[in-house]
Amino acid sequence: MTTLTFIQPDGSEKSVAATEGRSLMEIAQGAGVAGIVAECGGSAACATCHVVLPQDVFDRLGPPEEHEEDMLDFADAPREPCSRLSCQVNVTSDMDGMTVRVPAA
Amino acid sequence: MESKISGTDIPIIDDIVFEDLMRDPYPVYKRAQAMGPIVRIEAANLLLVTHFDDILEIEHDPETFSSDNPESNVVKLFGPNLMRKDGEAHKRERKAIEPTMRPGTATRCWGPVLEGIVDEVISAFEKKGEADLFDALAAPISGRALAAVVGFDDVSWQTIAAWSQGMMDGAGNYSGDPKLTARALEVSREIEAAVDRNTRRLLEAPDESLLSSMLQAGLTTKEIYGNTKVAVGGGYNEPRDAILSLIYGLLLNPDQKDKVVADPTLWQPAFEEAVRWISPIGMYPRLLTRDVEIGGHTVPKGTQIGLSVAAANHEEPRFEAPQRYNAFRPKAQHLAFGSGSHFCAGTWVARVMVTRIVAPQVFARLKNLRLKDPDLVTIRGWVFRGPTSLPVVWDV
What we know:
The structure holds 2 protein chains of 2 kinds.
Chain A: E1 2-7, E2 13-18, H1 24-30, E3 50-52, H2 55-61, H3 66-72, E4 83-85, E5 99-101
Parallel strand pairs in A: 1-5
Antiparallel strand pairs in A: 1-2, 3-4
Chain B: E1 12-13, H1 18-23, H2 26-35, E2 38-41, E3 46-49, H3 52-59, E4 65-66, H4 73-78, H5 87-101, H6 103-123, E5 130-132, H7 133-150, H8 157-171, H9 178-204, H10 210-216, H11 221-235, H12 237-252, H13 254-262, H14 267-277, E6 283-288, E7 292-294, E8 297-299, E9 304-308, H15 309-312, H16 347-365, E10 370-371, E11 378-380, E12 386-389, E13 391-393
Parallel strand pairs in B: 1-2, 3-9
Antiparallel strand pairs in B: 2-3, 4-6, 5-13, 6-9, 7-8, 10-13, 11-12
């Protein structure tokens, strides 16, 4: 089990036990993390599951695909250097202890 | 909507006729919501789910609530398509159309094309001082935009409109009227012929159109036919109706209109509110792949249920005074574009078209735009709903 901490748009924190292999979006939705709407249920079509990852995790994952890349520019909250759509990031064991920020729109 | 009705203890609404739904389904939805999570609507021969959270939950479980229904009129008349597939099969075809539909493409590639279309359409009538915006504005813009995005360079908006009507009539033909079936099959062949013609051109000179994206992704001809028909059936009426509902909502509320016109960032929430208020697609079906308990009732495998996003978008207290257009409502999720993996692929093109081009242009160019007579406005439909006549006047 991997433990993740989400910083919600209002600044409050929520720690969640995450199952590896599931997407960050699914974990956040399951835990009721504020700001992760995920209208399209994980198909990278709605840009409503925007998160900001720690730099080292972002770098390790490699660049997002072209479609996600495009979609990130249209998320409600302005894009940041380590922005990702949480539906496109799967939880791995090396993310244990990671803090993920949900940016405020 | 064909449907095996079962579960005899499910509450029933049986004191309305189909025409009541066509005229104004919202009172029926309100009653249904008070009766429980699933209600049988006798006049539509359908089990309807009307609660917002239930629809969200259903859309998160496509294995139980499948989009794949080989018995549906749509699949029988027009062939398989991505809207009626699940899982990997759906994903592959959806991915193929992404390059055309993503927001960056909508802005960079379609934006200028749509600006040209909107300018031509408005120029054709702006000196008249009076028009029905259904015929003069929304139908031609929506049809021409669809032809451009699909990649049909030789199809008029009138043809798109006629195809769309033929498809809808065929899909809704539950009485099996042979004339409607024949017309739907004719439309089906005409669209396939248009695909064939334009394919030859797009293989030589690929572009960012839907057809070209599907060709570049290597979809089969059958897949391309099916998905192009879905685009015609689902990409013409909806933006047309959204344009009209947005304009109507603002003309009913001049104080809101003044604020929105003064601040272009407000077009976005004004548009989202319009499609919440009068959702262009009010209901879509899902097929149960196993027995499921919904609200204490066992609904058997093989039953088709209708998800009423129009009802969900008017659910109280989630939406206060839901029957009123209010662009200044607290920001909240709505279901007008659906949810889950079948989330409307055209969402971003529609947003760019309506909020950045059509609506700002209309209110900038038609000075002092107002309803000719509020009593002349007609709104109709329940599966597909929108203004069917919007007579307006403006200063010239």
